[in-house]
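Below is a filled-in request sheet from our internal design queue. Each sheet records the structural input a requester submitted and the sequence that came back. We keep these sheets so that new team members can see what a complete request looks like end to end.

REQUESTER: design group, bay 2
PRIORITY: normal
MODE: inverse folding
CHAIN LENGTH: 265
BACKBONE (tokenized):
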């Protein structure tokens, strides 16, 4: 979505007219978004290299441009006061989505695309399809009691004739949620907090699980992170269903403690 403007311009431009000056102008238009700027350069460099290999262009002009500087690692997590404020948000679709992200560490874009048909509340599982997941494979998310409560509340708020997307937009939720920037801004205003975004909630959730002693191999299976690949992984096929379910309940209990402002016991 962030690169939509640039890529939309490119699809109407003959490849031989993609000059060094044109690429520089497009990159400059993303000066305020260093991460997107670097990603756009990577895409263009790869694409124009592919074109050069097939004699569609005489040279890859990206090789004449200094690559954008690497973006500093993002390490912002929400403190307990900020977490309590977010977990106490009421009546806001985006507030509910942020709480859901905190309860299982999933990505915001995956929650935005959640369909009602993917939810198996009898088994307490959210079956995320392959085309939604960054890792390009389906993922089963165990739902804690708190996460199920959020889902049921949102369903009641939507009504029976609501569209396919739980957090949909349009007249009756026929399209996935697409107002993350405005939603985050509203959530920060309502909680009187600053300096964080939706992905910080995912990072915070995973960090809390780490603090609670939930093993990394369990955390990656809860959150859909890429699993480490080594020689042994080809022989290890245990699904950790019991451990992931225990993990999300443990996370939910900790978030409830923080929400209530209770001390650690």
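RETURNED SEQUENCE:
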């Amino acid at each position: 979505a962030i690169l939509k403007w640039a890529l939309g311009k490119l699809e109407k431009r003959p490849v031989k007219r993609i000059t060094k000056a044109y690429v520089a102008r497009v990159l400059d238009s993303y000066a305020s978004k260093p991460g997107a700027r670097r990603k756009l350069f990577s895409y263009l460099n790869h694409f124009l290299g592919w074109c050069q290999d097939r004699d569609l262009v005489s040279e890859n002009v990206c090789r004449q441009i200094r690559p954008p500087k690497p973006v500093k690692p993002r390490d912002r997590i929400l403190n307990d006061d900020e977490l309590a404020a977010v977990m106490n948000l009421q009546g806001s679709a985006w507030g509910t989505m942020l709480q859901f992200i905190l309860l299982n560490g999933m990505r915001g874009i995956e929650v935005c695309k959640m369909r009602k048909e993917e939810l198996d509340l009898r088994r307490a599982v959210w079956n995320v399809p392959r085309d939604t997941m960054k890792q390009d494979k389906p993922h089963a998310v165990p739902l804690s009691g708190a996460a199920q409560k959020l889902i049921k509340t949102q369903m009641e708020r939507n009504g029976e004739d609501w569209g396919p997307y739980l957090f949909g937009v349009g007249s009756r939720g026929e399209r996935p949620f697409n107002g993350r920037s405005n939603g985050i801004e509203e959530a920060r205003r309502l909680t009187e907090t600053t300096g964080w975004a939706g992905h910080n909630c995912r990072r915070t959730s995973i960090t809390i699980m780490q603090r609670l002693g939930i093993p990394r191999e369990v955390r990656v299976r809860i959150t859909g992170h890429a699993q480490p690949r080594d020689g042994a992984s080809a022989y290890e096929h245990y699904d950790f269903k019991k451990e992931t379910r225990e993990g999300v309940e443990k996370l939910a209990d900790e978030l409830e403690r923080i929400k209530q402002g209770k001390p650690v016991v």
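SHEET NOTES:
- The longest strand covers residues 125-128.
- The chain is about 50% helix and 5% strand.
FILED BY: M.R.
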